[in-house]
Amino acid sequence: MRPKIGLKTATILVACLCMIVPVATALILVDRQETRAEDAYILQYARSVLARSERSADQIDAAAREINAIPPASPCSDDALRLMQRLDLRSTMLQGVGYAEGDELLCSSFAGRTPVPIGKPDLVTRNGGVLVRTHVRLFPHDPDYLVIVTGRAAAVVHKQLTLSFVERVPGLALSTFEWRTKRPLTQMGELDPAWFRAAVTHERVLRQDGHLIAVVRSQRRDMGAIAALSTASTPDLAWQASVILLPIGLVTGVVFAVLMIHVVRSRLSLPSLIQIGLRRNEFSLVFQPVVDLATGRIVAAEVLMRWRRHDGEIVPPDVFITAAEDAGMIRLLTARLIERLREDVGAFSALPADFAFAINLSADDLHTPATVEALRRLLRDAEPGLQNLVVELTERSLVDVEQARSVIEQIRSLGVRVAIDDFGTGYCSLSYIAQLKVDFIKIDKLFVHALGTDSPTSSVAGLVIELARDLDLHTVAEGIETEEQAGMLRSLGVDFGQGWVFGAPMTLEDLLVQVRAERTAILHKAVAA
Ligand code: C2E
Ligand code: CA
Ligand code: CA
C-alpha cells in the first residue's frame, strides 16, 4: 500500500477519534447530569409529601394526648367539646377531631354531640394502638376522609391534604404509606404496588416500567412516601447541561482533530509530503547575497531551498530539511536543487565571471558519488556565471569524516571550493579543518548576534576569525542584521558578510536586478571620477 493512502486513512481515523472522544465525554456528562437532575426532581416531591405526613402525624399525636386525657365518664361534656374545637382550630393539618367509641364518633369538633359512624378500620398499626380508616364518608357528597383513632381520640384528615400542595404536574402520582405493611394511607394517581415493596433504604430513586420513582422513608415514624412520574412526562432537565457541555465537547473535539491533523501532517507524513512535493514541483530556490565587507559589493549568493505546498502553506527549511535528512531523503532535495540551478543556467551569464554560488550539502550528500556527478554535470552546462561554486558543509554533516573525505576530494577536484557552515556550533571543529582542505569558514549567526552584547558567546566570533587567519582561510559572517554588526565584523577583519542588512533571500530575477544596479552605480561613479 502506498504510504500516502495509509497515512491519509490513519489521519482521518485519528482525527475522527479526536472528535468523537470529547463529544462522547460531553454526552456522557450530560446524561449523568440529567440522571442527577431527575433524581433530585422526583425526590423533592417524595420528601415534601413525607414531611407533610410527618407534620400531620405529629398533630394527630398531640391532639390524641389531650383527648385521651378527657375523663371517660363525661367524654362529651361542654369542656370536652370546647377542647376539641380548640384542637381542631390549632391543628393546620387536621380537619376535625372527635371522641371515638366502637365504629362511631360519640362527639366531635364538627358535629358536636351528634354521633357520626366511621365504619370498620382498614388498618391497624403499632401493635393495635392506632386504627386507621382510609375511606370515611362523613357527609354525603363530600370526599372520603382519613380517620385515625388512637385510643379514644379520633383525627379526621383530608386525604388530599398531604398530597395536593403541588401544582398539578401531569402524570405525577403521590402516596404516603405505612412502612411496615407497605399499605397506602393516602394516594393520588396510579401507583404500582411493586414500587412500594422496592422501598428498602432511606431514599431511593428507581427507573422502572417507564417511570421515574422516588421512595423515601421517615426517620422517626413508621411511614414512607412515594412520588412517581412517567418518563414521558419528565421535563427535560439536562438542557442547561447540554447547552454548555455539548458545544464544549464539540469545540474540544474540533480543536483536537485540527491539532491532530496538524501534528500528523507536520510530523508523521512529512517525508511522504516531501515526495509528493517533489512530484508536484513545489520546491523553489531563493538566493541570498553575500557581500565583500571591504567594498560592500555583492560577490556571491547562497542558494536556499523554499517549499510552498499546493495549498499555499510555507514549510520552513529547518523543518523539511531536517525531516528529509532524518528520512534519508536529503539527496533527492539536493538533486532537485542542482537540477533547478541547471534549468536557470542561461540567466547566470548576466553575472560577472567571478560571481560565486554557495549550495548547502548534508551528510548523506557526502556519502554518495552521485553528488559529484550532479555537480560535474552542472558545471559542464554552466555559463561563466556558474563556474564559481562553493559547497557549504555543516559540522553535523562531517560526523563521519572518513566516509566524506573521498567525495569532498572529488568535489574539490572539480574546482568547487568548500566552506564550513555554522562554524562553532558543532563539535571537534579543528580536527577536520586540518584533515580536509577547506576554503571558508562561515561564522554562525548565533555568534554574530552575540557581538557587542555581554553574552558569554560574544567573543567567539573574534576567536574564530583569529583561527581562520592562522589557517589561512577566508571568513564569511552570516545573519548580519545591523550596520553595527557589519562594522564590528569588518574591523575584526572578516572578509565576507551575509544577512538581512545586505539582502534577505530573494528570487534569481531580484538578485540579477540588484547585482546589475550595483554594477551600474559603480560604473557611474567611475565615469564621474
Ligand atoms: P543556513 O545554511 O545557515 O542558512 C542561513 C539561514 O539564515 C537561512 O535560513 C537564511 O534565510 C537565514 N538568514 C539569512 N540572513 C539572516 C539574518 O540576517 N538574520 C537571521 N536571523 N537569519 C538570516 P533558511 O533559509 O530558513 O534556512 C535554514 C537552514 O536550512 C539553512 O541554514 C540550511 O541549513 C538549511 N537549508 C536551506 N536550504 C537548504 C538546501 O537547499 N539544502 C540543504 N542541505 N540545507 C538547506
Ligand atoms: Ca548555509
Ligand atoms: Ca549557516
SSE class? alpha+beta
Percent of residues in helical segments? 40-55%
**What is the radius of gyration?**
49 Å
Mean pLDDT: 87
Structure notes:
The chain has 529 residues and is an alpha+beta fold. Helix content is 43%, strand content 23%. Strands 13-14-16-17-18-19-20-21 form an 8-stranded mixed β-barrel, surrounded by 4 helices. Strands 3-2-1-7-6-5-4 form a 7-stranded antiparallel sheet. The chain has a 5-stranded antiparallel sheet with strand order 9-8-12-11-10. The longest helix has 65 residues. The relative contact order is 0.08. It binds ligand C2E and calcium ion (2 copies). The site of one calcium ion has 4 residues, from loops.
Fold blueprint:
Layout: H1 3-67, H2 78-90, E1 96-101, E2 104-108, E3 116-117, E4 123-125, E5 130-136, E6 145-150, E7 153-158, E8 172-178, E9 183-188, H3 193-197, E10 203-208, E11 211-217, E12 223-230, H4 239-268, H5 270-279, E13 283-292, E14 298-308, E15 314-315, H6 317-326, H7 330-343, E16 356-361, H8 369-381, E17 388-394, H9 401-413, E18 417-423, H10 429-435, E19 440-443, H11 445-450, H12 460-471, E20 474-477, H13 483-492, E21 496-498, H14 508-528
Parallel strand pairs: 14-16, 16-17, 17-18, 18-19, 19-20, 20-21
Antiparallel strand pairs: 1-2, 1-7, 2-3, 4-5, 5-6, 6-7, 8-9, 8-12, 10-11, 11-12, 13-14, 13-21, 14-15
Bound molecules: ligand C2E and calcium ion (2 copies).
